[in-house]
Each structure stands twice: as C-alpha cells, then as structure tokens.
C-alpha cells in the first residue's frame, strides 16, 4: 500500500476513535443528569399509596411550604417516579406487608426502615437492619428529621422526600 492510503486510514481510524469517546462521554452525561419529575395532583386517600407515574396522572402531592408530602423512588430506574404519600407511617423492606416492598435486593432486611410523623414532623428511622439505611449518604443512627430534597437509601433503592 502506498503511504497516502495508510495516512488516510490513520485519519479515518482517529476520527472513529474520537466519535467512540464522544459517544461514551454522552452516555455518562445522560446517566448523571436526572430528569425532573412532573408535578402531580393531591390524592384524597389518607393511606400511603403507590402510584407509578407511568400508569396514572394522579399521585400523592408534593409538600408545600417546605413540608414533605410524599416519597418518590428515584433509583432503580425501573421503579423511578413511583410515589408514596406520607401518611402516618411508611415502612420499607422486603416483606410484602411493607408500604415500599423491595424484592430482589440482598442488602434489604425484611423490615428495614420507616418514615413517620412525630409531632407533625417527618422522621426517618433505621429499624436495626443488617446493612443500615442512609440519609443523604450518611448512615442513619436513631431517628432523624426529614427535609424536602433529602434522599433515603435502602439497599439499592433511593427515595427522595418531596
């Protein structure tokens, strides 16, 4: 082959390599960037209710004035947008009786954590689980006050207070 053909092949190879790296960076950027969830209207029931955003336009309302009205799953992707109204208590764990039932996660205990109101304030508490619960990346010990935007992690599931 002549030197000109080899030079052209080198340039084509470098161009394809740059396109590959650009695609990888785009994929990483798409994963890091999180889309905003659409607002939902108030659900009249007082019990915590699970309503996937894809199946219903109604769901538990966001809290107003800095108050929390619901917990929304943001991870894993296949459950993203599922909302739970903050009633008297939300339990999180592998048991079917839990409000937020998480199956197929070995890091989640049967009854792992709970979110409840104490004197009108939303609280989160780890229920002596083996692997612990995390509030904004910090391991929970005892009860902690929950604020709007806080993230509660139980195993691989992450819930956001809204």
What does this structure look like?
The protein has 162 residues and is an alpha+beta fold. The chain has one helix at 3-32, and strands spanning 50-51, 70-75, 83-85, 89-93, 100-101, 113-118, 121-126, 133-135, 138-139, 143-145, 151-154, 157-161. It has a seven-stranded antiparallel sheet with strand order 1-3-2-12-11-8-9, with no helix packed on it. It starts with a helix and ends with a strand.
Question: Briefly, what is this?
Answer:
The protein is α+β, with helices and mostly antiparallel strands and 162 residues long.
Please identify the structural class as seen in this structure. alpha+beta
Radius of gyration: 22 Å
Number of strands: 12
* Spatial strand arrangement across the major sheet: 1-3-2-12-11-8-9
The description of the largest β-sheet is: 7 strands, antiparallel
Number of helices: 1
H/E series, N to C?
A: HEEEEEEEEEEEE
Question: Overall mean pLDDT score?
Answer: 78
- Helical fraction equals 10-25%
Binned strand content: 25-35%
Distance between the termini: 65 Å
Low-confidence stretches: 36-58
- Which word captures the global form? elongated
List keywords for this structure.
single chain, 162 residues, alpha+beta, 7-stranded antiparallel beta sheet, 5-stranded mixed beta sheet, 12 strands
